[in-house]
Design a protein that fits this description.
two-stranded antiparallel ribbon, Rossmann fold
């Protein structure tokens, strides 16, 4: 076991929930956060699996890359690989809802139309049911108000070890935004950083807070 690589599973990007063959429900996520985390983990020498929704980004080299579109497809891949990894980082912006049905043909324009939506699977909740004691699960909470309160609620409900709260200001590149790291022990750390600075900070905090044993078994590179 000595020298075995840490295995990290990362989700990234948006999901698409199709109404018909042409139209879908999605969000503005570019996927860059998850891709940056995957790149950082690989540079540290970890074994990395990246499960990504649709983006225009090129996957980091030597990373196992799995492309998905819908929330159900992402859930399937996350649950398939999660039992074999040490850390799961859910950076994807998964759609909370999907259309009740996907129409076979393109819908024609209508003056008024009601679209019925149903909840998508809660991937983090499904992960919590099979999580082992030595596994670490990190989530993100993008909120428009009461960031800490809402992030803390999500952390407890989904039995996370760490959650990172941010706002829509974190979309885009090059600008500093407010983020908060909330740990399962109640500790809260606040930062104003660029998106590109978050991955290395994330891994440092995971190990500094003793969320994972990093001694003789693993060679930790931080």
């Amino acid at each position: 076991m000595v020298g075995e690589k840490i295995k990290v599973l990362i989700s990234a990007g948006p999901t698409r929930e199709y109404i018909d063959p042409i139209r879908f429900i999605s969000n503005p996520s570019t996927g860059k956060m998850g891709y940056l985390i995957a790149e950082c983990a690989k540079k540290m020498g970890y074994s990395v699996i990246l499960v990504s929704g649709p983006t225009h980004l090129k996957p980091p080299k030597k990373v196992k890359f799995i492309k998905v579109e819908t929330a159900k497809e992402m859930q399937r891949e996350i649950l398939r690989h999660f039992p074999q990894v040490d850390i799961l980082i859910m950076a994807a912006a998964v759609s909370d809802w999907r259309p009740y049905r996907k129409f076979k043909n393109k819908l024609k324009r209508k003056k008024e139309w009601n679209l019925k939506l149903i909840p998508n699977p809660d991937i983090l909740k499904s992960v919590s049911k099979i999580k082992k004691e030595n596994q670490i699960v990190v989530g993100f909470a993008l909120e428009t108000n009461q960031i800490i309160k809402n992030a803390e609620k999500k952390l407890k409900e989904k039995k996370l070890d760490l959650i990172i709260g941010n706002t829509p200001d974190f979309f885009g590149d090059g600008k500093k935004s407010d983020v908060c790291f909330i740990f399962k022990n109640g500790k809260i750390l606040k930062y104003k950083i660029k998106k590109e600075q978050l991955p290395i900070l994330l891994f440092k905090k995971i190990f500094k807070q003793n969320l994972i044993i990093a001694n003789q078994i693993y060679k930790v590179r931080l």
